[in-house]
Design goal:
- The chain folds into two domains: about 5-120, no CATH class; about 125-230.
- The chain is α+β, with helices and mostly antiparallel strands and about 230 residues long.
- The protein is about 30% helix and about 30% strand.
- A hairpin with a 3-residue loop joins β8 and β9.
- It is elongated, with a radius of gyration of 22 Å.
- InterPro entries: DUF5655 (IPR043714).
Length: about 230
């Protein structure tokens, strides 16, 4: 049996710097209450396991909808070993986990983000492709500016500046829908790509529907994303 790992996992649904502060608080509490922790291990796993608990390398794992560059900088300045992990939900079938940053005593130990997608057996290859497309759209929208905030809603994901400027719906089997705060009258609508949905019921906010089926469509939509962001 391996010695029990000492650490803390903290989770938040959205973009919330509190996930780091709260996690550090609980980790500090754990380190200050070693006797209580070892007593718990003793009761659950036995005396041998309790005697093998290693306190030299505690780690904090923070899981949230996203992190800002300020979060990453704050973690870099901290002496603890901290992992920042971003999660994404794609409909009811896919859960994506992405390692944003990993630091040990302020030193980054993983410079390349690692992504892991966990799929239920019912998710087919095409569905996974649309999930990757939705992931690409998410990165583009978050990269429009430092002030972009992502908010998870029940039926869509909202991207805000001072107000919503884009809403990303869970990927469908063959396309991803994004609704933008752009006046359809100012756009040359292209069948199968852009659609005027003013007056039509749909999830999210925005009168311009953008239908994305390929990475090329995401590139085509860049100017529309930027225009909606600028107007927010």
């Amino acid at each position: 049996m391996r010695p029990p790992a000492v650490g803390n996992v903290e989770y938040k649904r959205g973009v919330d710097a509190g996930v780091i502060n709260q996690g550090l608080f609980y980790l500090a509490w754990l380190m200050d209450h070693r006797a209580e922790f070892e007593h718990l291990v003793h009761g659950r796993l036995g005396a041998t396991a309790a005697s093998q608990v290693l306190w030299s390398g505690p780690r904090l794992i923070c899981i949230a909808g996203d992190f800002t560059r300020y979060d990453v900088h704050a973690v870099r300045e901290h002496r603890r070993s901290i992992d920042l992990v971003r999660y994404r939900l794609f409909g009811n079938d896919l859960l994506g986990l992405e390692a944003v940053a990993s630091f040990s005593g302020g030193v980054q130990v993983s410079r390349r983000a690692r992504r892991q997608t966990v799929a239920r057996p019912t998710a087919d290859v095409q569905g996974a492709s649309m999930a990757e497309l939705a992931n690409a759209v998410d990165e583009v929208l978050l990269g429009l500016g430092d002030g972009v905030k992502r908010v998870e809603r029940k039926t869509y994901r909202a991207y805000q500046r001072l107000r919503n400027f884009a809403c990303l719906c869970p990927p469908q089997r063959s396309k991803v829908l994004v609704y933008l705060k752009v006046d359809p009258a100012d756009v040359d609508l292209v069948p199968g790509f852009t659609r005027d949905v003013s007056g039509l019921g749909h999830h999210g906010t925005g009168d311009l529907e953008v239908q994305l089926r390929t990475p090329r469509d995401v590139e085509r939509a860049q100017d529309l994303f930027q225009a909606s962001y600028a107007a927010a």
